[in-house]
Design goal:
Belongs to the UPF0337 (CsbD) family. By secondary structure, the protein is mostly helical. It has 3 helices and no strands.
């Protein structure tokens, strides 16, 4: 609406100036030129206001778009980090499972080794006992006790691991 009144004021200013030119009235001519200039300035101010408003709206839209882009990027990054953490958790779980399997294998080997040592010690003691005297009988009994303790200690160690 301001645009129409400004155009009317500009037209009135031109008319006054033209009337002043025709009549030779310098005051009327100056008044018409002033009205015309005032109307043109108002029109330019309105044009600048409109341009500034449009630019501000464009900047706000651009800022909102950028904010949405950043939000999307952050969301994707969070998702990537969560996926990576989950993958690492699976890797750790597999490593723990492998380690547990290895520990079980080591424990079985320790038990088998302890049983083998006990069997060898018993065999050795029985050979020594069969070749010997009454004195070796006491040693044989001690040898069995030592072998039994060794096997028991080996089994306990294997179970603990």
């Amino acid at each position: 609406m301001g645009d129409l009144s400004d155009k009317a004021q500009e037209f009135a200013g031109r008319a006054k100036k033209a009337a002043g030119d025709v009549t030779g009235d310098d005051n009327l001519r100056a008044e018409g030129a002033a009205d015309k200039a005032e109307a043109e300035v108002k029109q330019k101010v309105d044009d600048v206001k409109q341009a500034v408003t449009e630019k501000a709206s464009d900047i706000a839209d651009s800022a909102q778009d950028k904010a949405e882009d950043v939000k999307q990027a952050v969301s994707e990054k969070v998702s990537d980090v969560a996926d990576s953490a989950q993958d690492k958790a699976v890797e750790v779980k597999h490593a723990v499972t492998e380690t547990a399997s290895d520990s079980t294998f080591v424990a079985v080997l320790a038990v088998v080794g302890a049983a083998l040592v006990a069997a060898l010690l018993l065999r050795r003691r029985s050979r020594t006992a069969s070749s010997g005297s009454a004195r070796s009988s006491g040693k044989r009994h001690k040898g069995r006790a030592v072998a039994t303790k060794a096997v028991t200690a080996g089994l306990k160690e294997a179970i603990v691991r």
